[in-house]
Design brief:
alpha/beta, 6 helices, about 240 residues, seven-stranded mixed β-sheet, globular
């Protein structure tokens, strides 16, 4: 059995009517050596960015919504490391436009269901994975994320962690945020034009050799590339999860 490490984070929120597109990303690392080397590289970039921008270690982290003129060069460095090391990234995106969502389909339930589906699709039967997910608030009475993920047969263990403690969770946030931004922009879902975010989006597409992250509406196919890392985007086309 090959052991892997996975990081899961989301962008947007299903319960907010103004956020028409939301999704979750899954970064999968299969090499212990690459994990340590990549973490060291990403931490160095974060430290330089923190010092340059005059922010504290506790408060500074890479987040899609924080992309701006003063920090975009550091974001580009951050993303550039993604394509150098052995890893894969997969996103599951939901466009709420024109869909009647089930009332019980809340943010926490969606987090688990998207995580489960991403792992089921992208972790093989011959692999076992340790999952680290961005911490989210558990509704009272619900089963914990860690316990629910423990029922997925390929998962060794799952835990939740604040994103500022993991550069890998921050990587997932930025990539997933960029993909959701592309969806809103291409489909006219009320996304205000932001030149810095658009600049970073174009940069990411060039690095992974894709012209768009957005499939035609109603298309069930994945958008994916191996360049050499595997990156895929899948849109949910149903009104709820089964």
């Amino acid at each position: 059995m090959r052991k892997c490490l996975g990081f899961i984070d989301g962008s947007g929120n299903i319960t907010h009517d103004t956020q028409t597109v939301f999704g979750h990303g899954f970064l999968k690392l299969t090499s212990v050596v690459d994990y340590h080397l990549l973490r060291e590289e990403l931490e160095k970039i974060r430290e330089r960015a923190r010092n340059k921008l005059g922010q504290t270690r506790k408060n500074f982290e890479f987040k899609w919504y924080k992309v701006g003129l003063s920090n975009i060069d550091y974001y580009k460095e951050f993303i550039e490391k993604f394509v150098i090391y052995n890893n894969s990234f997969h996103a599951l995106i939901y466009d709420k436009h024109g869909k009647d969502l089930h009332k019980s389909w809340g943010a926490y339930h969606t987090y688990f269901e998207h995580s489960r589906r991403l792992i089921k699709k992208h972790v093989s039967k011959s692999e076992r994975i340790y999952i680290i997910a961005d911490a989210d608030t558990k509704p009272e009475g619900d089963t914990s994320y860690e316990e629910q993920m423990g029922n997925v047969h390929t998962v060794i263990k799952a835990e939740m962690l604040k994103s500022q403690k993991s550069v890998f969770l921050q990587m997932v946030d930025v990539l997933t945020g960029a993909i959701c931004y592309d969806f809103r922009k291409e489909r006219g879902r009320g996304e205000a034009r932001d030149e810095n975010k658009l600049d970073l989006l174009v940069f990411i597409k060039e690095k992974v050799n894709l012209k768009t992250f957005v499939p035609k509406e109603g298309c069930e196919d994945y958008i994916e590339v191996h360049n050499p890392n595997h990156l895929s985007v899948k849109e949910y086309l149903i009104g709820g999860l089964k």
